[in-house]
Input
Amino acid sequence: MTRGMLIYIGQRVLLIAFTVLVVSFVVFLGIHSLPGNTFVNERVRGASLALLLHEYGLDRPVLVQYWDFISHAVQGNFGVSLVNRGEPITPIVLRELSVSAELGGAALVITIGMGVLFGVIAALRQNTWVDYVLTTFAIIGYSVPSFVIASLFVLIFGIWLFDVTGGSFYYPLTWDGTYGTLIELSVPAVALGLFTSSLVARITRASMLDVIHQDYVRTARAKGLKNSVVVVRHALRNALIPVTSVLGPLIISIITGSVVIENIFGIPGLGKEFINSILSHDYNVTVAVFTMYALLVGVANLAVDLAYTVIDPRIRY
Amino acid sequence: MRPHKLTIGGLGLGVLGLLSAAACGSTSTAQQQTKLAANQVLHFAVFNDFDTLDPSVSDLEVDSEIAQNVFDGPFRYDNNLQIIPDIATVVPTQANGGISADGLTYTIHLKNNVTFSNGDKVTSKDFLYSWNRAAALNGPYAASIFGPVVGFAAVQAAASAKPAGGVSTQQNIENQLAAGNSAFMMSGLTAPDPYTVVVKLANPAGFFLSALTLQATSGMIIDEKVVKNDPVNWWSKPSEFIGTGAYKMTEYIPHQDMKFVSVPNWWGTPKPVLTQVNIDIKASDTATQSTAIAAWEQGKYDLLGYGGSSSLPIADILRIHSSSSESSQLKLIPKGRTTWVSFMVNASYNPTTAAGDPFTGTSQAAIDLRKAFALAIDDKSLANIVCDNLVCIPATGGLITKGLTGYAGDGTDPLAKFDATQAKQLLQQAEQLNPSYTNEVQHLTYVYNQGGLNDSVAQFLQGDWQTNLGIHVSILGQTQPPFIGNRLKGDYVMSRDGWQFDYNHPQDWYDNLWGKAVLSADASTSGYDSATYDSTLAQADKLPLQQALPLYAQLAAELQAQAVYIPLYYSVGTFLIHSYVQGAGSTTQADYYWNGISILSH
Output
């Protein structure tokens, strides 16, 4: 790792920290300005409501509350839930992050695996029925929103094929909130990754078509190398450079798309927690989830930028 | 030819043999049907996570229906909602000397074999600690239960003062109680010996025992030794979630699950058969509930509807109801919950709202207008269209739900009568008396909290008002937290209102929904109050139940005469219980206790 790289990483880390701070501040102010709070009901009112608000520090000025939040958050303590009174948020968020990461990771594998594979095949079989089918599939994939795909999957696997699947593809019967089985993951992961994999397929196809007509590829073929060696070792690496450049936005798309997918499939990840916390006015959880998402996006972008240097040695920071 | 006697005898023996074989087979079948499964683990899902399971401050239905299996109080409600002894040896009455002649002193004798699940013996000292703590914490039910006790107000004042030194309020309360600070102890609560508790009331309160019996709330007994270690989170840790109930917690993962096991050698009866209860914590949206129902159909869950989760999606309920193989496992049990429309009737409660509100006041015009809107609603049609006559029934007997003490009887509520002709006449009369109504009624909005049946109900109401009165009322759905807060401040001219009873006494309704006490606490949807209401209520609350009933009926009549509300429906809880689960069910108030449930072989 060069000195320049280290300086670059340091600068990016500072930028991520600043971004997370701004996001958490804006969200904190926003959520606290929503009318109502999670405690009030017909029974909890007057003195007992005032006591509860005081117990959880909600009767202090908002800026004081924010300072309290951020000074603990930098130590990894996101405070306590207002809905599950007194429950520390950090373990809940970390557990749900692992669930979302697993789903997101599976979607990323589908994005890259399926997308690159289909793109390469389509390029190698240009203007054949294989190319047409895969291209059509890709166009459908990035034209249809992920929540529509997810709802269709629920219809197909959960209802039409209920007798075959027994609901196991859809209903998280044994989902224990940590790691799902392959079957439990497959349908929501495909629903989440289909859009991004379609984009990757299209970009890979275009890029591959460009690369396989290059002189050095022709030379490699002329030297008698096997087609698979030419494609994988010589062509693919260069064809992946444009794919890597869009990987950052694609990962962000997976992260944000997971909110919808988790709610449709009932997966107990950050996305589901996010919606639930907003609806129930669990301020601390909402801010913690938002902060976590901001951090994820920043780290994901940094990782992609660093991966770029591995794919293309010409890139140096 | 006459049959030979041997032939007759042989035939007789043969018949006898056949009958015996049939009886033995039947007995075997019967034995097989009642044979307990080896695996006595009950598994179900709830659709709300816990607020807190600390009974001193718990509030949600899911909290109490789970915690009732972990905590006990001096009394409990049986399946007929009658008060029976629990930790106490007997329910105090004037006849047995447990209640003094002036109704101010209650003497409660305790059983001497009651223990917490950690083995600590329960004595009167635990009662004093638990009840003083509950009073100081001022949870949702503290005022209802301990409000009448001498010294309650003083404890509240002491506990609400902000403690010095950055100590949290709850920790401060624990510290003060541990130090024996009398400012944090109700002076009317004493323990003359380890198995006697004496409660002195400032004024007679006929509802006191009913309120005290409310399960899993402020009247429950907790162990000071475990609570003081972590006064806020003790309930979420298996090692500290200690009670006197038949079950104790072994695992709690927020937003995920909770597990309980039976307490060995539990002091109470019936002894638990279920060895373990596993609860999955799910979100409350319709899709998740439908998923859980499918899981129940596949046998993953033994039952659904427990833990305050008895409002299952109606589409699934209809499907199961019409299924010949499953309908017998669907139990429809009335829950003590009434839904109605409230008018904001008090201009001084919220002057801002009152500015454009035609429903305020006690003038004949205002009453006629409110009655017009009430009589324009066809409750029977609503129950049919919105609830398919399954998950709700028309509220025609007053706001106290059918089956509860104080219910007036089917068809007795004049505001539940549907009469479109009379509704139009009343509207015309009102407009003649107050011509400004003609314009004001064109700008009305009915506000409700989204979810469940509320969206369908709102659309139904809008349709009936349009059809029967010719008035377009806008409808506005909101999320729960802002809706409840704003409604209680009187922000809405017309809004969805409702109440699920806590204990079977009319005081629970009349004290918490109308009158000066709720107005002064900014907790009144309608703002309704009158001198007559307050004085009648105060008088009724003091009397024993039977003597108080006519006075509570007067309050109901006053609300009806003033047309303060439009009754809609009484809720019916939906439970899905597999046939092999024996002893499961629900009263109007709460689930049957787990220690009465067993799993049969299947």
